[in-house]
Design goal:
Layout (H helix, E strand, L loop, with lengths): L7 E2 L11 E8 L5 H9 L15 E7 L2 E7 L15 H9 L8 E2 L1 E7 L6 H11 L10 E7 L10 H6 L2 H9 L4 E5 L5 H18 L5 E2 H46 L4 H11 L4 E3 L11 E8 L5 H9 L15 E7 L2 E7 L15 H9 L8 E2 L1 E7 L6 H11 L10 E7 L10 H6 L2 H9 L4 E5 L2 H21 L5 E2 H45 L1
Parallel strand pairs: 1-3, 2-4, 2-6, 6-7, 7-8, 11-13, 11-15, 15-16, 16-17
Antiparallel strand pairs: 3-4, 5-9, 10-12, 12-13, 14-18
């Protein structure tokens, strides 16, 4: 079918009141099967064929069982923003919300389409919840999870419930929807019965809501308020960034003037430079502890292959850590004398965006190992260096993952965190355009703001590396001064980690007992029904 040029309803009839029509909006990820669901509900090829991407909200109408149905299909969201011709995440969210303009007065139900064959994780649940909540806090009262099952051989009808109960994240999503869910199978012969059952469940939900609708004007007003708030925040962040940049420039200017005045001490400087290439002590935590007053303690955090080991080598001025490309599996500590001060640098394992299984550590084990890095620092750390490749297409998802890992170190961790961008190709950016690159990516801006506007960049250009490291150490010293010389205490972080683990164990125990009780109740009910049939 021909795609519409905008968010318009192609039904030729005049607007219908909610009393004479059943209005529904389809939500879900790309390729979840929303268009196919719309076709199944209306009993005709009303929407584009499967595989054709929905780029704008589209409305179709039809008469089913004597009642007029208004079905709005919306663009599916991507788990990653890959750029290109596709809509940006912000534009995509706006287009999804605009679907409300195609429904007279409001909608009776939001159908959240989820492929049951999809390995549904905590991250996918969070993304789905974020999109439902674009419609406001009342949206959950009108939402029903609609599972699509392409292969009818995959599950028997009676085992859909078992599949849902076997996945904790699916259970939580269904619970947000008041326990409402339904499934559409790929078996065409049974499709009409499945649709009839779906409409019955929707009618039951409408009755529970007293016949009310999720008002279009209410949702659109909330969207306008979010946009205005976002604009105000962006303006404030921009002013704050400009102020931070100006402070850093002034600090650099002051530092340059002091270096010029200290030119007569060039001989001593050359001697200290010669010492930079020598690691005076390498340890996995076995050596006598050093006091924070005599050492600068730092921990490197970042995704796998972000360049953390290379950053550690650059800071210490020698190949202290494994060569690039060798995966760091455990937290490792190296020390060296740089510029007359002892530096303690701890490299940590990088996180994966997905848990691919195999020989790699599980996400839980990986997080524990990252937090254990604090045991390698006497008393605490002065800074967490969050290493991010500037060449990486940084999205909202990557920002959330980075924030989650920083917050493993507790709520005070952001006061000690600095974003360190790595740039492998020195031709990629001029030094002065690093700021432009950061300001051009809203997610990078938000991450830098969480760190109080602190960021630095290390280029691949070896000839300039030492100057870049000197500037980095100056920024770290400025942060230490702002923190009153305090450190992020090791015992504080490790205690928080212990409390998280204990809480998680309690929650898992409660969930396990709840599932056991539910299974026992189901078995008793089944046994009771069996005895009733025998009578």
């Amino acid at each position: 079918m021909e795609e519409t040029g905008g968010s318009t309803c192609q039904g030729q009839s005049p607007p219908l009141s909610p009393g004479s029509s059943l209005n529904m909006v389809l939500l879900g990820e790309r390729e979840a099967g929303k268009s196919a669901v719309g076709n199944a509900i209306l009993g005709t090829m009303a929407f584009d064929q499967v595989g054709v991407r929905t780029r704008m909200s589209v409305c179709r109408e039809g008469l089913v069982g004597g009642r007029r149905l208004v079905v709005v299909d919306t663009p599916g969201w991507e788990w990653f923003n890959l750029g290109g011709a596709s809509a940006s995440p912000a534009a995509l969210r706006k287009e999804i919300v605009r679907s409300m303009r195609l429904c007279h007065h409001g909608v009776h139900t939001l159908l959240l389409v989820v492929p049951l064959s999809f390995s549904f994780s905590k991250r996918e649940r969070h993304v789905a919840e974020e999109h439902v909540e674009l419609f406001g806090p009342r949206a959950w009262n009108y939402t029903l999870v609609l599972f699509t099952i392409k292969d009818s051989k995959q599950l028997r009808v009676c085992s859909v419930q078992v599949e849902v109960e076997g996945n904790g994240e699916l259970q939580k999503l269904v619970e947000r929807c008041g326990g409402r869910y339904h499934a559409l199978h790929g078996q065409t012969s049974r499709r009409r019965d499945q649709v009839t059952s779906l409409l019955a469940k929707i009618q039951e939900m409408i009755s529970a809501n007293g016949g009310s609708v999720l008002l279009s004007e209410e949702v659109l007003q909330l969207a306008r308020e979010r946009e205005e708030k976002q604009e105000r925040m962006e303006d404030q962040e921009k002013r704050k960034r400009e102020e931070n940049v100006q402070r850093v420039r002034e600090a650099f200017k002051k530092e340059s003037e002091e270096r010029m005045r200290g030119g007569e001490k060039q001989g001593d400087t050359e001697k200290s430079r010669g010492q930079r290439g020598r690691v005076e002590m390498e340890t996995d935590g076995q050596s006598p502890p050093l006091s924070p007053g005599s050492s600068l303690n730092m921990v490197l955090l970042g995704e796998r292959e972000a360049g953390k080991s290379a950053v550690g080598n650059a800071i210490l001025g020698t190949m202290a850590f494994d060569q690039v490309g060798v995966r760091t599996r455990m937290s490792v500590c190296r020390e060296g004398l740089v510029g007359g001060r002892r530096l303690v640098v701890v490299d940590t394992p990088g996180w994966e965006w997905f848990n691919l299984g195999g020989a790699s550590a599980s996400p839980a084990a990986l997080r524990k190992e990252i937090v254990r890095s604090m045991r390698l620092c006497h008393h605490g750390v002065h800074t967490l260096l969050l290493v991010v490749p500037l060449s990486f297409s940084f999205s909202k998802r990557e920002r959330h993952v980075a924030e989650e890992h920083v917050e493993l170190f507790g709520p005070r961790a952001w006061n000690y965190t600095l974003v360190l961008f790595t740039i492998k190709d020195s031709k990629q950016l001029r030094v002065c355009s690093v700021q432009d690159e950061v300001e051009g990516n809203g997610e990078l801006q938000k991450l830098v703001e969480r760190c109080g506007g602190r960021y630095h960049a290390l280029h691949g250009q070896t000839s300039r590396r030492r100057d870049q490291v000197t500037s980095l150490l100056a920024k770290i010293q400025e942060m230490i001064s702002a923190n009153g010389g305090s450190v992020l205490l090791s015992e504080e972080v490790l205690q928080l980690a212990r409390e998280r683990e204990e809480k998680q164990e309690r929650m898992e125990g409660q969930e396990r007992r709840k599932r056991e009780e539910e299974n026992t109740m189901k078995a008793l009910k089944k046994e009771k029904r069996g005895k009733g049939d025998e009578v």
